[in-house]
Amino acid sequence: MIEQTYELVKSRLNSVYPMKVCCHLPGHALLYAEQELLLDMPYERHTPDAYPFGEMEKVGCRSIREAANGQYLNMHLRVGTTTLHVREKESDANIDAIVLIYMGELIETIQGPSEAQAHKLSSSIIMLMLETGIISTTYLPSPAMAIVDSCYPEGKVGYAAYPYPKDKGAIVSRFEMITSQHPRTRTTKAYRAIPDLVMLAVDANKIIEDCMKKCNDKE
């Protein structure tokens, strides 16, 4: 199902073009989200058997597969898929996820013998759409700070922090509460992009879920 969801997400973007080099993120960029999932939720840490693969992963980076650039509501995004270093308890498989990276305030660097592309994280958003329907949002107002929140679809109570939001207003209220002790974090372009990106993910997951239900009903 993640393949169909990924294609739907890309169809919502404008000016989409695939990356011509390997794309990676620093390991800690995904670690923030993974740690939040491990907190009082039914997940456990597990390193994929194939990790590390290649020079970039040997230094702790995470690969982003099928990476592409595009625009959504005038926001520059990079999207792709990755395998998290967590799995649901009692499952043998690590969780795959779609990655949406808000590129508005990212600084790119070229590293590695294969000219693989990595990122220096400035003010940004790393959003994960887990194959289980969970959506995890990591907001990085600066390289030294991360604010993480997650939401779950119907039937997945306990697998994330709160239910899917009904609209952008609910997301604004949620993040205003989360950032109440750090109001200065609300001044970046990345912060203002959070509601639109969360709703992009929520709507895509709901569309795919509805399609799957209709297919099952026909059978």
Summarize the structure.
This protein is α+β, with helices and mostly antiparallel strands and 219 residues long. The strands form three sheets. Strands 1, 2, 4, 5, 7, 10, 11, 12 and 13 form a nine-stranded mixed sheet that branches. It has a two-stranded antiparallel ribbon with strand order 3-6.
Structural write-up:
This protein is α+β, with helices and mostly antiparallel strands and 219 residues long. The protein has one domain. The protein has helices spanning 2-11, 27-38, 54-58, 168-178, 189-218, and strands at residues 14-18, 23-25, 43-45, 62-72, 75-83, 86-88, 96-102, 107-111, 116-120, 124-130, 135-142, 145-152, 162-163. Strands 1, 2, 4, 5, 7, 10, 11, 12 and 13 form a nine-stranded mixed sheet that branches. Helix 1 (2-11) packs across helix 5 (189-218) and helix 4 packs across helix 5. The model is unreliable at 106-119 (pLDDT under 50).
Largest sheet: 9 strands, mixed
- Domains (count): 1
Shape: globular
Structural class: alpha+beta
Overall mean pLDDT: 89
Query: Helix and strand string, N-terminal first?
Result: HEEHEHEEEEEEEEEEHH
Strand content: 25-35%
If you compute it from the alpha carbons, what radius of gyration comes out, rounded to the nearest whole angstrom? Answer: 17 Å
Instruction: Give the termini separation.
Output: 17 Å
Count of individual beta strands: 13
Unreliable parts: 106-119
Helical stretch count? 5
Approximate helicity band = 25-40%
